[in-house]
Amino acid sequence: MKRVIIIVLDSAGIGELPDAAEYGDEGSNTLGNIAAAVPGFSLPNLEKLGLGNIDGIVGFKAAEEPLGCFGKMAERSVGKDTTTGHWELAGITLRKPFPVYPEGFPGDLVERFEKAIGTKTLGNYPASGTVIIKELGQQHVKTGYPIIYTSADSVFQIAAHEDVIPVQRLYEICRTAREILTGEHAVGRVIARPFTGSDGNYTRTANRRDFSLEPPEKTLLDHVKEAGLEVKAVGKIDDIFAGRGITQSIHVKDNMEGVDKTIGFIKERFSGLIFANLVDFDMYYGHRNDPEGYARALEEFDGRVPEIIDAMARQDILFITADHGCDPTTVSTDHSREYVPLLIYGKEIRIGVNLGTRKTFSDLAQTTAEYLGTGGEFDAVSFYGDIARQ
User: What predicted TM-score, i.e. pTM, was given to this entire model?
Assistant: First the structure.
């Protein structure tokens, strides 16, 4: 019963990539800068696996005898957003970036969208999600018009008060936007951003949903499913892959529920893949420049690592990684172009192997495909031979 468990700590980058300056991300180092900024911060269980042994990492203790294998991965795709990172983890490299809209969306596109949903809109400029509902929340409540906005990422975000536009209606509006946003305007994600509260005290809820483009070619998930194996998705994985290649999906309200559901899947008996995204690091702390909150969330996850390991069966392999950075200590509130960590644990793999710097996130997909025997060529190099016990 072979299984692979991939847990993505959303935005937990470990240092700028060589081309970071092209993205305005010089000096970004999400985990390293948090370690420097927050006194007493530590991740002892991840350090036992080898976090502090990764080449070039700062702020963490190297284990004398790591319990796992370790390394870091560079992003080969153009971009630094969630969809790009996850798709590359699953074997797809994007050579052309998704479109971004630093000046807001074109007027004719907005008019087409408004006509399709039967109402005017508010906003249409780049903004922090928490800031824009402060600025336009009351006007939205009075008019009933949804708020549209974007960021440095390729996203078309739609915010609405749950008492003004019910969540299911907001999802319908997002699906309409997704149908319109094709061709030159094929943004990576349309995101539903529901909120509640009153003027001066608006709060985003856990009912966020992402409506991604379908991957342009087969991913690791497709190959695993087509091989007759299970693909269990936790968190927004189902959204990121537009539901493709997934046999069962669970959305969660926060990181700890995500860990609970992941452990629940691990305790089931099946062969295949468990793919989990823990988004709180990015959504609540990275984008809000809150290093203390980010540190607490990481420590909370770290405390659950032994529980995850204890639930694993003998032929399970655990990968802990990330999809990009989002350094909460820099001026920017956007994602950052960074290396991501690669920590590996399994009862039947070698320990203490330094995998160095991988040239692409897709090495993880190639390794998983080899271990599960599913096939799939991702223009990447499997490292399974380096970690497998002889």
Answer: 0.91
